[in-house]
Amino acid sequence: MPILCADIPRLPGLESICLVAGLRGSQITVRWPYVAEDETLGPWLRGGELIFITGINQRRSEQNLQQLIREAVEHKAAGIVILTGSEFIRSIPASVKAVANELGFALFEQPYSLPMVQVTEVISNAIVQDNLIGQSTRLFLTRLINGYADTPELIHLRAADLGLSDSRPYAVLALRLKGFSQRLSRDDPADQWRFIHERALLGEQLTELLMRRGIDWPVLEYEQDLLAIWPTTAAHSPALSDELTQALERLKPELEVFTGVSDLQPGLSSIAKAAEQARHAVQFAVQQDQALFFYDQLGIARLFDAIPQRSVLAQFCQQQLGSLCFARDPRSTMLKETLSQFMNYFGNQQQAAESLGIHRNTLSHRLKRIEQLIDCPLNDPFARLNLQSALLIEQILFQHHNIES
Length: 405
Prior knowledge:
- By secondary structure, the chain is α/β, with parallel strands linked by helices.
- It is built from 14 helices and 10 strands.
- The protein has helices spanning 62-74, 94-103, 116-145, 152-161, 180-185, 189-212, 240-248, 271-288, 301-305, 310-321, 330-344, 349-356, 360-374, 381-404; strands spanning 18-21, 32-36, 49-53, 79-84, 106-111, 170-177, 220-222, 225-231, 257-261, 292-294.
- Helix 1 (62-74) links the parallel strand 3 and strand 4 (79-84).
- The longest helix has 30 residues, at 116-145.
- InterPro entries: CdaR-like_regulators, CdaR_GGDEF, Homeodomain-like_sf, PucR_C-HTH_dom, PucR_C-HTH_sf, PucR_dom.
- Pfam families: GGDEF_2 (PF17853), HTH_30 (PF13556), PucR (PF07905).
């Protein structure tokens, strides 16, 4: 587990460090200790630092300490530790504590008698050790997701060695930012950088969400998706949709995220299967423009997905959809969306037109064009059944192409 601000006084030898304000910020992860000797902090911060203020080389007024807290919050530092004693900073002013409480920023007090070299060594060693364990955990889980074969007993023992509790059933979540492939394929480096930053931010928020719920599994990166293990109970599974909806609402609203959810699995030996299910589900979430999609919602699509001979499925799609099959140009995509909505509303043109936000005459014109392209009347119920199946199979084949490529 990451080292949090709240963990600092619990580390061996650091018991004399006390949290004196900003309790709400005590769950922030500490990336590294930093001893500040300049009047300001901004130019030297990268985020996640636990800042130590000694007052030895800089006289620190009450106003300056208040300003340091505001700068630290602005630059996303983890917390501030102020050293107090008889020589430099005698005590932490009440107004400084008030600012920390107001901003929800962790503020600690450390006696000068506690050597800084000891403090930084203990914290640095704890962070390095946590990083090494975290890397081992990610490697272990990544190998399992990629189909690394081992017995359930050995997997359980390895999980226990890493401090992971795998005694509860779990689902795997696959989260994908809206427009992942399109935005990364653009030539605009600034837009690509913003998107990569958003993905990193999503990973941080997801990690914090898991930590708040006492879930000690790390967030994994797998191609275009972020994967998270969500422990639950078999008895609780009917309410899992509501639970995940409420939890995911805590993610920043400006991040448009699709989430796919696997079936419940009993142990880590099934994690490769669960990850594949979650990634299938998130692909359908993207295609259906649905924020949360469960694998068991796929219904008959699970049967098509299980057919190993993809060429047979592709041939069926081509027979039913004609030139529209596998076409991704804007016009073909628009016509297939029109066809899908028309069939979703059981051939009711008025409802289909309203769902598409177009005039009924426009819908009628599109449907005639579709009939010409597929060479099949849309008033035939068996033809509509085949077309619905073809559109569903096409999504599955697109999904496998995206995952494998």
